[in-house]
Amino acid sequence: MPSAPQRLALAHPRVFDSAQMLWVLVCVSAASFFGTWDPREPIPWWPGLALGTVATAALLWRRTHPREVVVVTGVCAITAVGLGYLATMLLLAPVMVALFSLALLDERRIAHFYGLGVVALMVPTAVLESPHFASFVIVTLNPAIGLFLPVAWGSALRLRRAFTDSLRARAEHAEHTREEEALRRVAEERVRIARELHDVVAHHLTLANAQATTAAHIIRKDPEQAAQLLNGLSATTSTALRELKSTVGLLRRPEDPDSPLEPAPKLEQLPDVVAALATTGLDVTVTTEGEPRQLSPAVDLTAFRIIQEALTNVSKHAGTTTAQVTLAYDEDLLTIAITNGRGRPAPPPPPSVNSGFGLISMRERALSAGGRFSSGPLPDGGYTATAELPVHF
Looking at the domain assignment, is residue 211 inside a domain? Predict the structure, then answer.
């Protein structure tokens, strides 16, 4: 976070630049009037003041042409020292400001190169023009330190600014990524809830429609069987309402006391689906191959929903009274095959089977669980849907 002077400089750059140039001009003026080795033989003040004024005016372009400004101010300072002025920090004020701006705006190695260049020319000039009684510190260390100090300070501020900018960029990127991740998860959750609703509604409404139609057809001929179908219809609608409530409950808030906490359906509930379909006239045979293995909850739900949706499609579109479900357990793989009408010509599936939400839902479920899904007609007639799911996901 910038300090109060920095905020003031950023808010009023022209005022800050004017004050800085005025301060630099005061420094070079003092060096021109008092910067002499022997007070008894003073150097004329006007050459130093003229050179200082030129160097100060050059600072106007230090942000757009920092390298050129360093050259101009450096030449003015070296010329002044060559005329006999003391190489004090007052005299070096313009070139110090120029080197600071260069280190702040340009690469560090460029600033060091220009700083070394000015020092390499300044120190020998000061040594050659100084009298024999001149102090070594004033002649060599004073200009060297005075010129390297703004380079080091500007480089440090530049690195700090770059570090701060990188932190800000990383924070903005993290915030943007977090928002994208949240939107992606919301979209995935919406798709998952849509699949659940489709599977629940498609299966149970298809089953209820078949039970109601059959009961209406035989109610006069066989009232007892019609009553059994109507009892099954009641159980079907109750199951549908319960599963719809459970699915819609996902949209409630977690702290909502009315939010249902019923477990998701599993393969162990497959006999209930088979029994319900039997009331509509569809005879489903379930075959298990291999040793059943414990499935992860996601795979268990996926396997149940794929079988449920496939059998619902058979009941709606196949025009057959039999269907086979095969569960083949391998060490790390569960293969599910749902077939119908084997040994008879396969009627062309209606558009709703190929392009509707049924096969799309099954394929999406298999992919979301890390598996694969395929479907198509059999060579000897009938239709099959196959899903390969990992045992653990």
Answer: no
d(CA 334, CA 307): 13
Residue whose structure tokens are 């749902």: 338
Single residue among 149, 174, 199 that ends a domain in this structure: 174
Give the list of residues 6+ apart from residue 81 with CB closer than 8 angstroms, or none: 87, 91, 122, 125, 126, 129, 143
CB 60 within 8 A of CB 50: no
Q: Does some domain include residue 221?
A: no
Q: Are residues 270 and 168 in the same domain?
A: no
14 and 159 inside one domain? yes
Asked, for residue 281, whether it belongs to a domain, the answer is: yes
Q: Categorize the per-residue pLDDT at 373 as very low, low, confident or very high, splitting at 50, 70 and 90.
A: very high
Percent of the chain with pLDDT over 90: 16
Yes or no: say if 383 and 349 are a contact pair by the CB < 8 Å rule. yes
Asked whether residue 161 falls in the same domain as residue 289, the answer is no
Question: How far out from the chain centre does Cα 38 lie?
Answer: 69
Query: What whole-number distance in Å separates Cα of residue 89 and Cα of residue 143?
Result: 7
* Counted domains in the chain: 2
Report which of 234, 237, 210 is spatially closest to residue 317, judged by C-alpha positions. Answer: 210
139-193 pLDDT per residue, tens: 888 888 889 899 999 888 888 888 888 888 888 888 788 878 778 887 777 777 7
**Domain limit, last residue, from 119, 151, 174:** 174
**CB neighbour list of residue 341: distance below 8 Å, 6 or more residues apart:** 318, 319, 320, 322, 381, 382, 383
Boundaries of domain holding 357: 266-393
Q: pLDDT tens-digit profile of 291-333?
A: 888 888 888 888 888 998 888 888 777 677 889 999 999 888 9
Q: From CA 152, how far away is CA 101, in angstroms rounded?
A: 11
pLDDT band of residue 343 (cuts 50, 70, 90) is very low
Percent of the chain having pLDDT more than 70?
A: 75
SS3 content of the chain, % helix, strand, coil (to 5): 65, 10, 25
Examine residue 252 and state whether it is found in any structural domain, yes or no: no
